[in-house]
Amino acid sequence: MRATWLLPSLTLLQRELVRFFRQPNRVIGAMGAPLVFWVLIGAGFTSSFRPASMPLSMTSMEYLFPGVITLMILFTSIFSTVSIIEDRREGFLQSVLVAPVSRGAVVLGKILGGTAVALVQSILFLLLAPLVGIHWTVVSFGMAVMISFMLAFTLTGLGFVIIWRMDSVQGFHAIMNLFLMPMWLLSGSFFPSSGAPWWLGWLMWINPLTYGVAALRRTFYWSGSSFEWDLPSLAVALVVTALFGLFFFALSFVMVEKRRVIS
């Protein structure tokens, strides 16, 4: 049983990594867009944007840093699942699904592939943290990597669920613009829930991304600080992020088991 899951999953994971890094445009797009956003918006907000919970010593670029990492993970994780449509058109997905391996292994391999790609990019971006005044310890950096993995796994699972029933890349981009970008904007990456209208604050608190961003923020200041964040605790943020990750993986598995692949 272990072999029927492990080998197919690792093979699909390796395939996703090779496919991604053989396409430089995907690498540049996934890393470049959040980086440009961070620099331009962060610099533009320097003198005009300061949430009440933000200390005077913190710059807007530092405040936006956790959200930009989340945006990078979102882009890479979600767009990695577009390969499902490509694999379906090429016949590869049908071949995998009729092979004598568990469909759960197929789901795990595809999700881990997108997770690994997003994790590599997030680690590279985390190394820029000292440039904006965030100083690492071994513990805080390790925690940030772990949270990035959890976020990447959750978002890749979400992308899998969304795209499994689709046969059009254009339709996927429409969902991205209508659903996923507002999901990021309402995660606390861009502005805190304090001061927002009650209905907007409510949407932020039920948004799974809110807890991933909160976990990153608290991890970045692991050694403690003199200010208070309007955030869930680190323990709550980790538990909620983990539960959402398991939920999307389980839902992906159920969808693959119960639905024939679209030909």
What does this structure look like?
- By secondary structure, this protein is mainly α.
- The protein is built from 11 helices and no strands.
- It has one domain.
- The longest helix is centred in the middle third of the chain and has 26 residues, at 138-163.
- It has helices at 2-21, 24-44, 60-80, 83-90, 92-98, 103-126, 138-163, 169-185, 198-205, 208-220, 234-258.
Task: Based on the model shown, name its key terms.
263 residues, mainly alpha, 11 helices
Give the SSE layout:
Layout: H1 2-21, H2 24-44, H3 60-80, H4 83-90, H5 92-98, H6 103-126, H7 138-163, H8 169-185, H9 198-205, H10 208-220, H11 234-258
Helix pairs in contact: 1-6, 2-3, 3-6, 3-7, 6-7, 6-11, 7-10, 7-11, 10-11
CA-to-CA gap between the ends?
Answer: 29 Å
Structurally, the number of domains stands at 1
Number of helices: 11
Low-confidence stretches: none
Order of helices and strands: HHHHHHHHHHH
Describe, in short, the structure shown.
It contains eleven helices and no strands. The chain has 263 residues and is mainly α.
